[in-house]
Amino acid sequence: MKIAVLPGDGIGPEIVAEAIKILEVLRAEGISLELDVAPVGGAAVDQTGDPLPPSTLTLCEQADAVLFGAIGGPRYDTLPREQRPERGLLRLRKAMDLFANLRPAQVFPELVAASTLRPEVVSGLDILIVRELTGDIYFGEPRGIRTNGAGEREGFNTMVYSESEIRRVAHWGFQAAMRRQRRLCSVDKMNVLECTQLWRDVVTEIAPEYPEVTLSHMLVDNAAMQLVRHPRQFDVIVTGNLFGDILSDEASMLTGSIGMLPSASLNARGQGLYEPIHGSAPDIAGQGKANPLAQILSVAMMFRYSLHRSDLAERIEEAVRSVLAQGIRTADIAQAGEGIVSTGQMGDAVATALRAH
Ligand code: NAI
Ligand code: MG
């Protein structure tokens, strides 16, 4: 199994180092893993002037999976748009056609108190958002800022989805629902936007292929409200790029800790990019404070979706749960009075738990 490892900037290299400890435990058991490290984001700009050097892209395209840390930082904020670290990630997603973005939002029983919502609302929460990642208003043409007939500036973007783009991500939603509680909620704004009328039509057309899945539709404004009112009503949510961007950030905060949440971005060939949902956290970089669990849980997703070893995914997730049950906490998930461990100590604890299971 060939894994491209892209640590990136800020806390990226610190948390990726902890993920590698987990991979080393599995390697010691005889699992064959080839790890190739390459620069991306600001780290790559510093070395080559390009946030996604051709050699890094080639490595990713030839790998079974990409393990990605985080990118960005104040040092790069003044660069032209094309050279900014974020462009490197966007180009990588597009080049590898990573159209299905899976973002689980799960509340671990030990961390219920970390949520800003009441425990009875979030305890037991386990949602998966499937967000389309390579289309929609983010990529539609034409777009720009122009002067209109009245001599006033106007900004415009185009919301566009082809039938095939909707169909392939909707299949992902149904298939994910089949592996879970078999409930799929498709989110759109069909009462106002034609593009999302097509979305609803196509999702409805393929539903008969999945008779075991209960399909519902919800308008995005209602979905935003329902996510905080009664989030446990959802199992899998499938939606477009723009609505998914917003709803997945909302859902992630139900769990109370950005340092806990992994993600997967997949293409039709089964390749995937696995990264925590948070950024490079420049405010805590280099201090050993970052929580590596989102990165470690991203490794679990990598085994599940690209490397076809769900057994290893489950062992890693179990190791994380056992570390939380032991009361081991980085600063971001600690309650007042609880002891705090460093990034490295958290990674060591998960590695030890993994060896024991
Ligand atoms: P951020 O997610 O990096 O940080 C937000 C807050 O959460 C900060 O207070 C940070 O310390 C904390 N935090 C994040 N991850 C944590 C972890 N693992 N453990 C403990 N605390 C953690 O978002 P921010 O500050 O808006 O952006 C910083 C940089 O990251 C920017 O340059 C931004 O463009 C970039 N970014 C990169 C992403 C990526 O690589 N996919 C995603 C989001 C932002
Ligand atoms: Mg976002």
Q: Brief description of this entry?
A:
It is built from twelve helices and twelve strands.
Notes on the protein architecture:
This protein is of the alpha/beta class. It folds into 2 domains: 1-98 and 267-357, Isopropylmalate Dehydrogenase; 100-262, Isopropylmalate Dehydrogenase, CATH 3.40.718. 41% of the residues lie in helices and 18% in strands. The protein contains 12 helices and 12 strands. The chain has helices spanning 12-28, 42-48, 54-62, 85-95, 119-122, 163-179, 194-206, 220-229, 241-254, 293-305, 310-325, 343-356; strands at residues 2-8, 34-37, 65-70, 100-106, 126-132, 144-147, 153-156, 183-188, 214-219, 236-239, 262-266, 272-276. A 10-stranded mixed beta sheet has the order 2-1-3-12-11-4-5-10-8-9, with helices on both faces. Strand 6 (144-147) and strand 7 (153-156) form a beta hairpin. Helix 11 crosses helix 12 (343-356). The protein is globular. The relative contact order is 0.16. The model has no long low-confidence stretch (mean pLDDT 95). It catalyses: (2R,3S)-3-isopropylmalate + NAD(+) = 4-methyl-2-oxopentanoate + CO2 + NADH. Mg(2+) binds at residues 221, 245, 249. Catalyzes the oxidation of 3-carboxy-2-hydroxy-4-methylpentanoate (3-isopropylmalate) to 3-carboxy-4-methyl-2-oxopentanoate. The product decarboxylates to 4-methyl-2 oxopentanoate. It comes from Ferrovum myxofaciens. Residues 2-350 form the Isopropylmalate dehydrogenase-like domain.
